[in-house]
Amino acid sequence: MKIYKNDYPWTVIVEDKIGKNSGKPYTDISIGFKEKNIKATCEADKYKTTWFHFLDEAVLLKGATTFENVYQRIKFERDKEKEKSRKEAQTEQSQQQIYSELNDDIPFE
pTM for the whole thing? Predict the structure, then answer.
C-alpha cells in the first residue's frame, strides 16, 4: 500500500515497508510540514520541509482530533471576544443616549 496526499503546507505519505534488520512488515507514516525559506538563494532551497515519522495510524487520528479541537477553541474564543466588544459598544451607545437626553439647562428668568 502507498498513499500520498499533498495539501500545502502538509504532505502525508503512508507506505507498507519491510524492516531492513528484522525483515518484518510495518506501516511507515510520514507527515511533512513545508514552509517558505526566506533566506533561500536558489529555487531548490525555496521551501524547507520538516518531516515527522510514525509507525501507528492512531497518531493520524489523534493529530486530526487535536487540530480540530484547537481550531474550535480558537473560533469559540474569537466569537466570545466579538460578542463582548458588541455588548460594550451597545452599552456605550446606550449611555451616550441617556446622557444626551438629560436636560441640564438652567433656566434664567
Answer: 0.63
